[in-house]
Design a protein that fits this description.
Blueprint: H1 14-31, E1 38-39, E2 55-63, E3 66-71, E4 76-78, E5 84-90, H2 92-96, E6 100-108, E7 115-119, E8 124-129, E9 136-146, E10 151-154, E11 157-161
């Protein structure tokens, strides 16, 4: 007796399965909320988790005919009193493609004496955060990157809470 094969479907090829998995992961990553780094009063220079001082990864993505900037944390939240550094780093793939910070690559608007000692670099940019004011204080800042031809900007937030 012969089996009825009319209801049997062929399994997708391995490249098709890989493409489906990659597309699913990409959609999940785009839909996921941005991570926040929160530093609390128990964090110290020696007990900080690996994300302390916070390192904000800066990624440049294709957006229509141009590009856009994405960051790994927005806002960056501090819930501790005292000085700490914030480090912004252009991801390796974008660095090797020629993307870099401009000379004013991280500009904190109206810093109110809370931020000092900016240390610009082409791939890494650092500011010190004094975080000395009581209450919750938000600070907008601008990230500027360039590929040598065009400059792109993004305006995320730093939130200090004491």
């Amino acid at each position: 007796m012969l089996a009825d094969l009319s209801q049997v479907t062929r399994a997708p090829s391995m490249p098709a399965v890989a493409a489906i998995i990659a597309a699913s992961l990409l959609m999940a990553a785009c839909a996921a909320p941005r991570a926040k780094i929160v530093l609390d009063e128990n964090a110290t220079a020696t007990s900080c988790p690996p994300t302390c001082p916070p390192t904000v990864m800066v990624t440049i993505i294709k957006a229509g005919p141009g590009f856009a900037i994405a960051v790994s944390q927005d806002p960056i939240e501090f819930r501790t009193t005292g000085r700490g550094a914030i480090v912004w780093k252009i991801d390796d793939a974008n660095s090797s493609s020629g993307w870099r910070f401009t000379n004013d690559g991280i500009e904190i608007r109206d810093p109110g004496g809370e931020f000092d000692n900016p240390r610009p670099g082409q791939q890494v940019f650092t500011w010190n955060n004094r975080n000395s004011k009581s209450g919750t204080n938000s600070y907008k800042y601008t990230i500027r990157v360039t590929d040598g031809t065009t400059t792109y900007a993004l305006d995320p937030t730093i939130k200090n809470q004491n």
